[in-house]
Amino acid sequence: MNFDWNYFVGLLHNVDFWQASVLVVKLSIITWVGGNIFGLLLALSKQSHFKLLQVFASTYIWLFRSLPLLVLLIFIYNAPLLLPGSAQWLSSPFVAGLIALIVSETAYIAEIHRGGLLSVSKGQREAGKALGIKYSGIQRIIVIPQAIKIALPALSNEFVTIVKLTSLVSVISLSEILMVGQRLYTQNFKVIETLCAVAFYYVLIVTVFDRVIHWLERYFDVTNKSAKQVTDEERSLVKMTSEVPSIQTINPTSYPIVNLTGVHKYYGEKRVLEGVDLAVKNGEVISIIGPSGSGKTTLIRTINGLEMLDDGAIMIEGNPFLEPTPNGRIGKNYYQHIQKIGMVFQGFNLFPHKTVLENIMLAPLYHKLGSSDEIKQISFSLLDKVGLIEHAHKYPHQLSGGQQQRVAIARALAMKPDIMLFDEPTSALDPELVGEVLKVIEQLAREGMTMVIVTHEMSFAFKVSDRVVFMEQGAIQLSGAPEQLLGEAHPRLSKFLSNQEIIPNNLELNDATNRYA
Ligand code: ADP
């Protein structure tokens, strides 16, 4: 084999090659960063409610994914023929090449980001909305960080593609690695040696950046992080329970905290709520029970605007809160009052990229409910209240289901709500973890928190509630104090309760409370 090793080794410290490598790195990094910024904006536009933005994003992606980069490069380099004013920038091959690369890569990277955004579960957005965070805040604090983490492997792969694509800019006479090589072998005909050196420089660049991006992936991967210990100083932040400003026992108005009148909800043709009237008084604990599919979850989600009502109205402390709107979107009064409602979901919906403490502090910081120190102090007090202070710096995946749900309760309480809504808070838990969550809810009930709880835990419902509401076929069939409901003979309720393993057939209240005690 006639391979000129000396020549090849000499090329590894050839100044022109190193300058070309710096140029390729510069082109690749700027293209990747620019492509990510514009690609993310494009992906968000594609998901936007605004038709015009959607159409613009879809058209852009369709057009520039269809156009070969080579064509785009030559087109942009020659654009001054059409627009003479652009000659001052586009006559530079670097600028023309960079623009072509960014324009083309934006279309590909937008699709990667769209995949990432779609992978963030609906529950994450709902949790943000229930905490009164607006659309832009939800995207910025909750969705985008998670989406980027999901998209990072594909984005790092795209960086490698970009590095390789830069070889195409030689077509507009930009002196990148391939062009330096071509210039050399057309003079000395040592084609293989020169191309081996070209390959060396590309492989070197890709390898270095591959390592950097892998490091970034590991850095953002919270599953690899071990939790910091809670310090004595942090423990000392815990206030006396009586000082925890989470429980609002004094209602300054005589209005119900929440008042639903004639609430109707349809899913397509299907009527799911049929004229529900419900007034929740200050300090009242209401459990909503009923067979599956009776509309309990829909009702509680309608109260805080996660589902829009189709008819009727919901007032908060005498103020208009929700009513049907022509476009089916949340009306103008919503964001004034949503902070008064705390929501706990069946599936917890904690933010997986934030620690327990950060989960609790996130919404109060967003709403500027106090200084960071004040909010931290309240958050530690709430963590103490739910018995999780030692877990403050853990990530949600490092906790059991019951612990996660208790964090979710603390997170909702941090917003100092006037009413707490619980949507089947124990349904996703293993049986042995149910009790620890119910105890926290019962404690809140004792402290006077106004609550509406959708639950299948009959013993618990009949024990802690001031009023039990029995729903069926989208309507409230019965509503009354537990003793009253159990004392009267309601055939439908008796049948429903006798089907629940918890309540024995004779419907003794004391029996009903046994399991939870
Ligand atoms: P429950 O909580 O009492 O089990 P739900 O409120 O979850 O009842 O559901 C009430 C009815 O509405 C059910 O028939 C269910 O299939 C239907 N439903 C719930 N959510 C949706 C949805 N997003 N789209 C269509 N139908 C739905």
From TrEMBL:
Keyword Transcription regulation carried by entry: no
A single Gene Ontology CC term: ATP-binding cassette (ABC) transporter complex
ABC transmembrane type-1 domain sequence ranges: 21-213
Membrane topology: Multi-pass membrane protein; Peripheral membrane protein
Every ABC transporter domain range: 258-498
Matches recorded under InterPro entries: AA_ABC_transptr_permease_3TM (IPR010065), AAA+_ATPase (IPR003593), ABC_transporter-like_ATP-bd (IPR003439), ABC_transporter-like_CS (IPR017871), MetI-like (IPR000515), MetI-like_sf (IPR035906), MetN_ABC_transporter-like (IPR050086), P-loop_NTPase (IPR027417)
GO biological process assignments: amino acid transport
Domain of life (superkingdom): Bacteria
Localization in the cell: Cell inner membrane; Cell membrane
Record-stated family: Belongs to the ABC transporter superfamily. Belongs to the binding-protein-dependent transport system permease family. HisMQ subfamily.
NCBIfam families recorded: HEQRo_perm_3TM
Name the record gives this protein: ABC transporter permease subunit
Classification lineage: Bacteria, Pseudomonadati, Pseudomonadota, Gammaproteobacteria, Vibrionales
